[in-house]
Design a protein that fits this description.
10 helices, 315 residues, mainly alpha, two-stranded antiparallel ribbon, 2 strands
Length: 315
């Protein structure tokens, strides 16, 4: 059996060759690839939040013991408390992820669902219910529940509750930017989901790198909402093209591939990666003419690949 090269998301890219004389690697063509961890947090869920998944385990074991001993009240109390605290731990983790995404952006709306607040409430209710059913403490159970809920808030805080915008711009402009970036992030999530279906770690890494370049453009738009009208068509054409191309290639890969499909997909990724860098430069330089040319060039390329429908050409 032939040996295969091991590759991971952050493993060296075989398409990257070292410069003569050592030093950092560079892609063929002279472009230096960006740092692999750019725009990524090491973890958005803290160790303390992960520990909350382990704390209810004694209740689960107590529920199993109650089943064996034939005590239905203890069984309901322990297993119900276990389910409630596990649900609370899951909400807490999701709340920390949503908070990390909120903090990473210059313009953002607060999470639609206050997950950390709900997690604290569920924790308090679960502790109160377990105490009431197991120990029949009456009002003491309510006190335990309140203490548990407040301790949860003190340990993990509350969800972001306010809109975050740019000083000097009204709420309407900030809201428009937030909605546009939310929609763009949804497209990137769909792109990443499609890339995960491709059983090729190098291509997955390439797609993630293009998504990182797109997020660099987002940060420019967030700093100056006046760039949004000039970026809207660019982002819609480019991100839709990236998502549709990734979905199409993933579907082809599931069916065993097609001749030349990989080469065409890699070529499109290279064009998109370069174009996002130019987009960011044009926005920073306020160069509208060059930006319009870039949009039209890529629109023609995507039309040739069947990725831009005629009715959706105008945004």
């Amino acid at each position: 059996m032939a040996a295969q090269r091991y590759g991971g998301k952050y493993s060296p890219d075989p398409s990257v060759t070292p410069k003569a004389g050592g030093g950092d690697g560079a892609k063929r063509g002279g472009a230096t690839p960006p740092p692999p961890f750019r725009n990524r947090r090491a973890s958005s869920v803290s160790f303390r939040a992960r520990l909350m998944f382990a704390l209810p385990i004694p209740l689960f074991l107590g529920g199993l013991f109650a089943i064996g001993s034939g005590d239905p009240v203890a069984m309901v109390a322990n297993l119900g408390g276990f389910a409630g605290l596990m649900g609370s731990a899951w909400l807490l983790a999701e709340g920390q992820r949503a908070e990390a995404a909120y903090e990473a952006r210059a313009v953002a709306r607060p999470p639609a669902i206050p997950r950390k607040l709900f997690a604290a409430a569920i924790t308090g209710v679960s502790i109160a219910a377990v105490n009431f059913l197991s120990l029949d403490q009456g009002l003491g159970s309510i006190a335990y529940g309140l203490v548990a809920g407040l301790a949860h808030v003190a340990a993990f805080g509350l969800d972001p509750m306010k809109k975050k915008g740019i000083a000097g711009f009204d709420d309407f402009a900030s809201e428009r930017v937030a909605r546009a970036i939310d929609a763009a992030e949804d497209l990137l999530r769909e792109t990443s989901a499609a890339a995960n279906r491709i059983r090729d770690r190098r291509l997955q890494s390439r797609v993630e790198r293009v998504c990182d370049n797109a997020r660099d453009v987002f940060r420019v738009v967030e700093r100056d909402p006046r760039d949004l009208p000039r970026s809207r068509a660019f982002l819609s054409v480019y991100l839709l093209g990236l998502r549709d191309a990734t979905v199409k290639y993933a579907d082809l890969a599931d069916r065993g591939g097609a001749p030349g499909a990989r080469e065409r997909f890699e070529s499109l990724l290279s064009d998109l990666e370069a174009s996002f860098g130019k987009q960011r430069t044009h926005l920073l330089e306020d160069n509208r003419g060059s930006l319009d040319v870039e949009i039209e060039v890529l629109r023609d390329r995507l039309r040739q690949d069947g990725l831009v429908p005629i009715e959706g050409e105008k945004s």
